[in-house]
Design a protein that fits this description.
alpha+beta
Length: about 260
């Protein structure tokens, strides 16, 4: 009897161990399945995250390429302007905010009416009168930034005294261009304001003898000035384009019209 009971207990123990082992194997298989599923899901999530990143990178690359292309086209268009005449004594002009102003024709009042940003300390003298056939001694600064104001000057071409506001612009003076390259957008010419010496000579030729000057200063400083002149017909003087370069960089442009 006792032997049968012992055998029965041993058989029962074996069955419990077998069931436990099966359950353990099942849990292991389930855990493995879940791990594989989790890894699969993570991989899919990673793919989903990576794909937009690739698209974004491509988009940014495309945007950069487009921007660079636009900048290149704009630069080329700007520098292509001087393929026409740089020097034109019959139509000497400049632009402010895209509007053309012609020396010897445009009056100071026209520019005031157009809202050209003149310095208040200068424009308050616009009503003062100057004598006939006389040029203004002081200029009227156009504020392109806080510390830079290229100037225009007027001339009374009539036979009677008149306010400077009613006189025509005959001269524009742009100094210190090399320090203000980025502030010239609102004032421009038919040619690039930073035209190089080579570009100038290629378009307008070498100045006449005596109209080109080179100066050597201290510590490697030097300037080159190119003047292009045409003798005036009515008054003493000349029509003139003057370009000054400091160490090879444009530094000053002056254009004057005397009838």
């Amino acid at each position: 009897m006792k032997s049968k009971k012992i055998v029965a207990l041993l058989l029962a123990g074996c069955m419990v161990m077998s069931i436990a082992a099966c359950n353990a194997n099942k849990r292991t298989d389930d855990d493995t399945d879940r791990t594989e599923e989790s890894q699969t899901e993570e991989t899919e999530d990673t793919k989903e995250t990576e794909e937009p990143t690739e698209k974004t990178e491509k988009s940014e690359e495309s945007t950069t390429t487009t921007t660079t292309s636009e900048e290149t086209e704009a630069t080329q268009a700007s520098r292509a302007a001087y393929t026409g005449k740089v020097i034109d004594f019959e139509d000497m002009h400049f632009f402010v905010n895209g509007k053309k102003y012609t020396l010897g024709t445009t009056t100071l009042q026209e520019m005031i009416d157009d809202g050209v940003p003149f310095k208040e300390s200068d424009i308050k003298y616009a009503s003062e009168k100057i004598k006939k056939n006389t040029q203004s001694f002081n200029g009227f600064g156009i504020e392109l930034d806080k510390f830079w104001s290229p100037q225009v000057y007027v001339m009374n071409l009539s036979d009677s005294e008149k306010p400077m506001s009613e006189c025509v612009i005959y001269r524009i003076y742009m100094p210190s261009i090399d320090d203000h390259y980025q502030n010239n957008a609102n004032l421009s010419f038919d040619f690039p304001y930073d035209i190089t010496m080579d570009e100038l000579v290629a378009n307008a030729g070498e100045p006449k003898e005596g109209d080109k000057d080179h100066y050597d200063g201290d510590d490697g400083y030097y300037t080159d000035t190119y003047n292009y002149k045409q003798k005036s017909e009515k008054y003493l003087g000349s029509r003139e384009y003057s370009f000054e370069y400091k160490k090879g960089e444009i530094s000053k442009i002056v254009i004057s019209y005397i009838p």
